[in-house]
Amino acid sequence: MSGFSRLQLNSKGMAFDPFTGASYLISSTGLQILRDWRDGMDDHAAARSLCGIYGVNMVVAERDIKDFRAQLRGLELN
After folding, report:
1. 25 forms bridges with which residues in the sheet?
2. DSSP for the chain, written as a single string
3. How many whole angstroms separate alpha carbon 38 and alpha carbon 60?
4. How far is CA 6 from the centre of its chain?
5. Is pLDDT above 90 for 32?
6. What is the reported pTM?
């Protein structure tokens, strides 16, 4: 199980990792990306989702996902 998939999320951006006991505050964009991944979307589909929800272009959405993945790796939640 990947680290992000075990996170328990609430709608206000709080995430709890029951495996480590750590908690995190996640932006609304990060929450949407996690939800999209949990729904089975790949990065490209999640980027399209961000475009539709936030009105950003594909380049910005893909960069946001790449940056979010890097943050997850830094927290060992990849």
Report:
1. 14
2. --TGGG-EE-TTSEEE-TTT--EEE--HHHHHHHHHHHTT--HHHHHHHHHHHH---HHHHHHHHHHHHHHHHHTT--
3. 21
4. 12
5. yes
6. 0.88
